[in-house]
């Protein structure tokens, strides 16, 4: 099967090269047949790459250690269920996964390209197939997963223990798919620019693709936080690690683009700005791939240092020159006749939202590259830690959430201070009431109670819009349920966006609670000893030791009594992997809507005592709840408009 996989890889490279050359020459010489022939490779490349993928998976299942990649990332003791994780756990396999995803996205883009955009299809395909050809060439000649060893070892080196976690089935592939998926809206925008026939026909397709990629990245980031929370053993979920940051940055820029593209669709504004945003998003996405491919920035998530990083850096530089070069040449065609009517309007609030999102993204980028800058200019590597990001980005996020609450309450085109005052009156009063309540309850940290007040402000504003619209339709003769459904169905992008905003509020609740009011205590306990942390009485009962082929597991059993005198049995898992000389943990977590009790075993002492880290993390459950809400909001925003329609007089503007 290894030979089949390798041959399929070369076939995929040959097809993509033909698709790239054929699409370029077809346009140059106005040959429709050559363009059509090149486009047909979009249907064949995924088949070839799927064969390569299946071949590599079978090699893992058969423990074919003649393949260097299989020997480096698995062993006989590895549970077969983690074969999928091992498949993309290294440079070579992850590149194959990325190429497969990009080939499928290219196929979908070409197949579902609307008739109105037929003129840009070849250009869009040419850009996508060019990116795919780059990945395939790098993989074939520099990181081939089917390279063989001169001898066959008896066993492999094994998978990284930190990857043997349920989150790893989805977190890395979603982030990789999201980063490379930004190529689709980018290629659509570039295809439109290259034709010189500038119109808004691409806007809806660009919005749909961007929203899909945005949601994939968001869920991938959230799953990564859950993975870190449950396995890394430090009790947190976000450490501003470089690899986390390089996935966050394009997500922030895509967020700006999704809002801004709605302004272009509605008001024919921000044409130049939207091209700049999608170019930045694409550049940051490939910067993330560069960092993750063995670039110069050290991270616990990145692959081993290799020459691949510099190859990707070269491609990043080329794509940057290409994208902004095309933009520069077509800049005059993008100038519109419309302009902002008022700075007190929804489109102006979207622009402010964009600026804040870009500010957060570039602050994060500066934190990622600063160690390199300091090494070049000072000769020493200065690492940027979490306090920098929290102190700079924290206030920016605060203002951003405020705009998230105010923006939807402002009408398009223009407004007045009096109408704005009326719109924010109820949300403002609810926010003030909550702040007063929190102060009376002892929540006295200013940033905390102000942030909670802001969450109440945003939530109340959204609920007010829903209630107002539902009541308006009820007066037209509909019952409450029918009125609400018709309201959402009539403007799904708008109300799907509101649901996504609620997801971000839910996320903020967890971040604020755990950041400002978390409790941590490190203890060493012998069997039968106990400790009290907050309202929890924790007793260490016993440890069960299990010897596995590749590890020694320590199952630490504890009995917890909560504030209501209820007994809870918990188990903190820890294992030592001698071959990798590393330990892995699984935290024992009792999660409620109010708080998490988090217990992790950090060390087993020679005298039989065990070191535990015990934390009480308020409101963390709401972070994970944000995921399903975000998915629901995205589906609502993407769902095709139903036949339910409202007249202009029915719809509450």
Continuous helix count: 20
Mean pLDDT, nearest integer?
Answer: 90
Please give the radius of gyration in angstroms.
Answer: 27 Å
Listing every helix as H and every strand as E from the N terminus to the C terminus, the arrangement reads HHHHHHHHHHHHHHHHHHHEEEEEEEEEH
Class computed from helices, strands and strand pairing: alpha+beta
State the assembly state of the protein chains. single chain
Can you summarize the main beta sheet? 5 strands, antiparallel
Shape: globular
| Strand percent estimate | 5-15%
Could you give the order of strands across the largest sheet? 2-3-4-5-6
Task: Give the tally of β-strands.
Answer: 9
Poorly predicted runs of 5 or more residues:
643-653
Tell me the span between the first and last alpha carbons.
61 Å
Helix share bin: 55-70%
Q: Your description of this structure?
A:
- The chain is an alpha+beta fold.
- The chain has 20 helices and 9 strands.
- It has helices spanning 2-28, 32-61, 68-73, 83-87, 91-111, 121-142, 171-181, 183-195, 203-231, 242-267, 271-292, 308-329, 331-334, 346-378, 386-406, 417-440, 446-474, 480-490, 492-517, 621-638; strands at 519-525, 530-533, 536-547, 552-561, 567-577, 582-586, 588-591, 595-604, 610-618.
- The strands form 2 sheets. It has a 5-stranded antiparallel beta sheet with strand order 2-3-4-5-6, with no helix packed on it. The chain has a 4-stranded antiparallel beta sheet with strand order 1-9-8-7.
- A hairpin with a 4-residue loop joins β3 and β4 (552-561).
- α7 runs antiparallel to α9.
- The radius of gyration is 27 Å and the shape is globular.
- The relative contact order is 0.07.
């Amino acid at each position: 099967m290894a030979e089949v996989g390798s041959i399929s890889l070369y076939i995929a490279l040959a097809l993509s090269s033909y698709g790239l050359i054929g699409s370029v020459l077809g346009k140059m010489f106005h040959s429709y047949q050559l363009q059509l022939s090149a486009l047909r490779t979009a249907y064949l490349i995924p088949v070839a790459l799927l064969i390569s993928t299946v071949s590599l998976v079978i090699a893992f299942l058969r423990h074919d250690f003649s393949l260097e990649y299989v020997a480096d990332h698995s062993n006989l003791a590895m549970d077969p269920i983690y074969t999928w994780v091992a498949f993309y756990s290294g440079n070579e396999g992850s590149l194959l996964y990325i190429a497969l995803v990009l080939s499928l996205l290219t196929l979908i883009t070409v197949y579902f390209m609307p008739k109105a955009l037929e003129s840009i299809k070849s250009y869009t395909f040419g850009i996508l197939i060019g990116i795919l050809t780059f990945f395939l060439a790098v993989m074939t000649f520099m990181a081939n997963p089917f390279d063989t060893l001169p001898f066959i070892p008896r066993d492999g080196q094994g998978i990284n223990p930190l990857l043997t976690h349920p989150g790893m089935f989805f977190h890395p592939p979603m982030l990789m798919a999201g980063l490379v998926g930004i190529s689709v809206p980018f290629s659509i925008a570039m295809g439109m620019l290259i034709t010189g026939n500038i119109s808004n026909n691409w806007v809806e397709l660009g919005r749909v693709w961007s929203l899909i990629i945005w949601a994939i990245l968001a869920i991938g980031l959230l799953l990564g936080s859950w993975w870190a929370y449950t396995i890394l053993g430090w009790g947190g979920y976000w450490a501003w690690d470089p690899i986390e940051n390089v996935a966050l940055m394009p997500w922030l820029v895509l967020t700006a683009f999704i809002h801004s593209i709605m302004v272009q669709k509605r008001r024919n504004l921000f044409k130049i700005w939207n091209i700049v945003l999608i170019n930045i998003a694409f550049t940051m996405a490939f910067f993330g791939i560069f960092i993750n491919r063995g670039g110069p920035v050290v991270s616990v998530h990145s692959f081993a240092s290799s020459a691949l990083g510099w190859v990707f850096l070269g491609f990043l530089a080329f794509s940057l020159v290409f994208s902004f070069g095309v933009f520069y040449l077509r800049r005059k065609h993008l100038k519109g006749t419309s302009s902002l009517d008022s700075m007190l309007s929804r489109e102006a609030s979207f622009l402010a939202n964009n600026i804040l999102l870009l500010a957060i993204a570039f602050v994060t980028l500066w934190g990622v590259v600063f160690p390199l800058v300091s090494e070049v200019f000072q000769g020493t590597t200065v690492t940027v830690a979490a306090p920098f990001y929290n102190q700079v980005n924290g206030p920016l996020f605060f203002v951003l959430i405020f705009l998230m609450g105010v923006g939807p309450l402002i009408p398009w085109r223009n407004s007045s201070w009096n109408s704005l005052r009326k719109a924010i009156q109820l949300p403002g009063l609810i926010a003030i009431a909550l702040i007063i309540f929190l102060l009376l309850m002892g929540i006295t940290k200013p940033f905390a109670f102000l942030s909670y007040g802001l969450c109440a402000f945003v939530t109340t504003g959204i609920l007010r819009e829903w209630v107002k619209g539902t009541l308006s339709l009820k007066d037209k003769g509909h019952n409450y349920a029918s009125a609400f459904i018709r309201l959402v169905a009539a403007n799904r992008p708008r109300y799907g966006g509101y649901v996504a905003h609620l997801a971000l509020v839910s996320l903020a609740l967890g971040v604020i609670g755990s950041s400002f009011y978390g409790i941590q205590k490190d203890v060493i306990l012998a069997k039968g000893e106990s400790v009290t942390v907050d309202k929890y009485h924790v007793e260490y009962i016993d440890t069960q030791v299990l010897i596995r082929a590749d590890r020694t597991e320590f199952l630490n059993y504890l009995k917890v009594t909560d504030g209501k005198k209820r007994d809870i049995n918990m188990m903190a898992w820890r294992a030592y992997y001698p071959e990798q000389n590393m330990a892995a943990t699984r935290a024992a977590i009792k999660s409620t809507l109010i708080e998490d009790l988090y217990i992790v075993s950090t060390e087993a002492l020679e005298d039989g005592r065990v070191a535990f880290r015990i934390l009480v993390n308020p409101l963390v459950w709401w972070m994970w709840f944000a995921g399903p809400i975000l998915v629901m909001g995205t589906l609502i925003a993407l769902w095709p408009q139903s036949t339910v329609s409202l007249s202009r007089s029915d719809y509450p503007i």
